[in-house]
Amino acid sequence: MVNRPIVYRGAKEICGAVGVPWKEISHYVREHQLPAFKINGSGTWVAVPEDLSTWVIAQRDKYLHGRK
Fold this sequence. Notes:
The chain is of the alpha+beta class and 68 residues long. It has one domain.
């Protein structure tokens, strides 16, 4: 069994998991609905691995739709 983290913490870890630039995390959260958040609206970014997987699959489907 593979041990997966309960959450990813920090912009670098979250963005590294989904392949986007960590310095642009706020943009991806705001404009592309990247499922990351700050507890109580401040501090370190946090994301649930399953949410990130779902988001990546949705992005793939969105941008590959109609391409063969």
